């Protein structure tokens, strides 16, 4: 036995060395796999920072986490994304773009023209996006015939949100035109609450203004004045009434409206400190987060005089061309965005309706059901039209020029006559 012991020890020694090599190899494989997994990450620039918006975004984060995709958040506060666009320009100029960016309307075209967008054609063809995403959205989701963005939702901006208790005290009759709206706002004022909650920043001023344009002039006038930026429409009698009505609406704001974020105005209505808010349907996300129920705690209605038309805004994620090593994660994110289950889960939280037309309204609340029905009606009638304030009606330069005039007028810095003169001049200069 003693003569065999050295060989036995040698076998043990060899086995230990082999196990050591295998362990080292396994560690290296694990390390490599870990590095590969760590590389499966998307850095996402967005402006969804309110409670309801953040909750909706978490649905996407969790969806990707299940697929092993990391999420590096780059939130930039600001309701319409102006601050986010400033941050994006800085990143792109520095040669370090994020992997995915929340973009709207003409901004999608502007960035596509710069040649920085990743191509999503293969994924879109595989998943049949052409068949289920409305053409009005595809006009912005595609550039030069190629898919460059994945639409998350369709928002509409011409909504009025009412505190149900205040509304009932005011008579419970939904206004159908501007005069009836003023009557309801007077009734709110008589209750000792703020009649119309509004945040005085340009994009919110523009959101209110475009609803008034549609209410006063109808869809044909909206197309001429806002989508075509026709100088005669921008300076004529119908636009004069729009600006006069805006001046009157200003009298229903509270003294602290200037500079207020939209969700804080929503909170005033939720808490019964204000009667109404004109805002896009992302406002509903705040009501739902506050555990409020449509029809019981709040009323959702089209802005008076705009039923039958929808001013739309759609959040989309453009994938930036950041190299092949991140392409797989980008494609998984784009696919996750268009997944029907995600579209339902996200939009039931966000307050919007799905970007896909093949999704049932079964799991949506009454306001969303109305939104989906209104969208289908407007799309079939040709009255589904882009929102100016949210980048789907005019390129950024023209939009900003128009919003500047709208805000100055609302704040009393321009008379109506001066605004009628300045508005077409500002548009011409911006073009």
Q: Approximately what portion of the residues adopt beta-strand conformation?
A: 5-15%
Regions with little confidence, pLDDT below 50 for 5+ residues? 1-38
Number of helices: 19
Shape: globular
Amount of helix:
55-70%
Structure summary, number of beta strands: 15
Plain-language structure description:
The protein is an alpha/beta fold and 431 residues long. The protein contains 19 helices and 15 strands. The chain has helices at 5-39, 51-66, 82-93, 105-113, 121-127, 129-132, 135-141, 164-169, 178-190, 202-227, 231-235, 237-250, 262-270, 283-289, 327-338, 340-350, 366-381, 396-410, 416-430, and strands at 41-46, 70-75, 100-103, 142-143, 146-147, 149-151, 153-156, 159-163, 194-196, 274-278, 298-302, 310-313, 316-319, 353-354, 384-386. The chain has a five-stranded mixed β-sheet, with helices on both faces. Helix 10 runs antiparallel to helix 12 (237-250) and helix 18 (396-410) packs antiparallel against helix 19. The N and C termini lie far apart (98 Å).
């Amino acid at each position: 036995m003693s003569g065999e012991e050295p060989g036995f020890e040698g076998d043990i020694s060899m086995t230990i060395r082999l196990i050591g090599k295998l362990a080292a190899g396994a560690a290296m494989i694990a390390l490599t796999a870990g590095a590969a997994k760590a590389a499966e990450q998307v850095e996402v620039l967005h402006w969804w920072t309110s409670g309801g918006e953040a909750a909706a975004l978490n649905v996407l984060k969790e969806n990707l986490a299940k697929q092993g995709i990391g999420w590096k958040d780059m939130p930039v506060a600001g309701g319409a994304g102006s601050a986010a666009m400033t941050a994006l320009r800085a990143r792109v100029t520095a040669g370090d773009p994020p992997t995915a960016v929340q973009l709207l309307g003409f901004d999608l075209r502007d960035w596509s023209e710069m040649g920085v967008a990743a191509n999503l054609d293969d994924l879109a063809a595989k998943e049949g996006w052409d068949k289920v995403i409305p053409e009005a959205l595809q006009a912005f989701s595609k550039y030069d015939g190629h898919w460059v963005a994945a639409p998350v939702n369709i928002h509409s901006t011409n909504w009025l949100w009412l505190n149900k208790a205040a509304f009932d005290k005011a008579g419970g009759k939904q206004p159908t035109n501007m005069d009836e709206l003023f009557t309801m706002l007077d009734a709110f004022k008589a209750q000792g609450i703020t009649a119309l909650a509004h945040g005085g920043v340009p994009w919110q001023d523009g959101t209110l203004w475009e609803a008034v344009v549609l209410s006063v002039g109808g869809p044909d006038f909206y197309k001429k004045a806002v989508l075509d930026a026709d100088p005669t429409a921008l300076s004529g009698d119908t636009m004069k009434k729009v600006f006069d009505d805006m001046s009157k609406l200003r009298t229903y704001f509270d003294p602290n409206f200037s500079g207020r974020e939209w969700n804080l105005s929503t909170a005033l209505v939720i808490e019964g400190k204000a009667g109404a808010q004109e805002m896009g349907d992302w406002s509903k996300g705040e009501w739902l987060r506050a555990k409020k129920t449509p029809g019981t705690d709040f009323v959702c209605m089209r802005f008076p005089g705009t039923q039958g038309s929808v001013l739309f805004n759609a959040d989309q994620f453009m994938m930036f061309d950041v190299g092949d090593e991140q392409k797989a994660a980008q494609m998984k994110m784009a696919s996750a965005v268009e997944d029907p289950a995600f579209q339902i889960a996200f939009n039931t939280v966000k307050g919007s309706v799905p970007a896909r037309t093949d999704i049932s309204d079964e799991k949506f609340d009454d306001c969303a059901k109305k939104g989906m029905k209104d969208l289908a009606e407007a799309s079939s009638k040709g009255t589904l039209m882009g929102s100016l304030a949210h980048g789907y009606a005019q390129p950024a330069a023209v939009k900003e020029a128009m919003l500047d005039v709208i805000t100055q007028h609302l704040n009393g810095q321009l008379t109506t006559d001066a605004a009628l003169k300045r508005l077409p001049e500002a548009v011409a200069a911006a073009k």
